[in-house]
């Protein structure tokens, strides 16, 4: 009974974390490899499945972001290894155009993607996100500076998330005083010790937000989630730049972009 429960939990965990990992685990179980070979077989099947997903997903309306792109790429290879780097072709083009524009204005700029979506099935959750389930959403990392200037391809947090820009004194705090029982608005303070001593590159971030609000893909609108205090600090005001609410994750550590139908 315990062994069966363990297999079920591993299947569910791998499925929720990578979408296709649970299926790869089932195949490794059914194949019954010799002692000590199951992990190796799982890795081989999972790698083959991930490669197959990159070929099949475009036939179903999603494409993988280039894991090693020069101007636009995932912040870490982990996002690719977990199959969390898939978006619709329109969103991929939008992000690529942003990256090209940023490099043209600030030569040497690298735009880093964070969580996007899995390769298949609208409605399949990409935890812990509430809405990354249809290929039309993408998180982008902030741009950062070190003591020597712009830090290309680097983020303060090791994973791009949870290096929050705290509100300045007197800034808008729409969630102050709330203590919601169900919320993703975590401060993650216990992880801050891992953050690098980098500071926000306000000039690049402001330029990126202004470009995003002025260059929507043909036939689409855009929704951008950003904390109000940070939008005010950057001087960015546009109907597409919105507050995500007090129960969703904080958005003063990354930009969330999504395309909406017109």
Order of helices and strands: HHHEEHEHEEEEEHEHEE
Shape: globular
N- and C-termini, Cα separation: 52 Å
User: How much of the sequence is in beta strands?
Assistant: 5-15%
Largest sheet: 4 strands, mixed
Structure, described:
The chain is α+β, with helices and mostly antiparallel strands and 262 residues long. It folds into two domains: 2-57, no CATH class; 63-170 and 180-261, Muramoyl-pentapeptide Carboxypeptidase, domain 2. 33% of the residues lie in helices and 15% in strands. It has seven helices and eleven strands. The chain has helices spanning 2-18, 21-31, 38-56, 77-81, 89-105, 202-212, 228-234; strands spanning 63-64, 72-74, 86-87, 111-113, 137-141, 144-146, 149-150, 199-200, 220-225, 241-242, 254-261. It has a four-stranded mixed beta sheet with strand order 5-11-9-10, with no helix packed on it. A three-stranded antiparallel beta sheet has the order 7-6-8, with no helix packed on it. Strands 1-3 form a two-stranded antiparallel ribbon. Helix 1 runs antiparallel to helix 2 (21-31). The longest helix has 19 residues, at 38-56. The radius of gyration is 20 Å and the shape is globular.
